[in-house]
Design a protein that fits this description.
The chain contains two helices and no strands. The chain has about 80 residues and is mostly helical.
């Protein structure tokens, strides 16, 4: 192909797992801020609910799955 070396894109020091609790807290805060951006749908069901703790845990898990699917479909990946 061509003789150019591969180009690094992004932060070469990035790690999949946070090295410290403070870094994990900062990453979580950035992700939370991303979910509040305009255009991200709110997957919270509307209305009043009564139920067991298991019911609400399942509702939260479904909301998180929907949010993850939305981000996977709509996140811009580098070319």
């Amino acid at each position: 192909m061509n003789d150019q070396p591969p180009r690094l894109v992004g932060n070469r020091h990035w790690r999949e797992f946070a090295a410290s609790p403070l870094e994990a807290l900062r990453r979580g805060a950035r992700l939370d801020a991303m979910t509040r951006l305009p255009g991200v749908p709110d997957f919270q069901p509307r209305g009043l609910f009564r139920g067991t703790q298991a019911f609400f845990d399942a509702m939260d898990a479904e909301k998180e799955r929907n949010r993850q699917l939305w981000f996977q479909k709509n996140a811009k990946r580098p070319d």
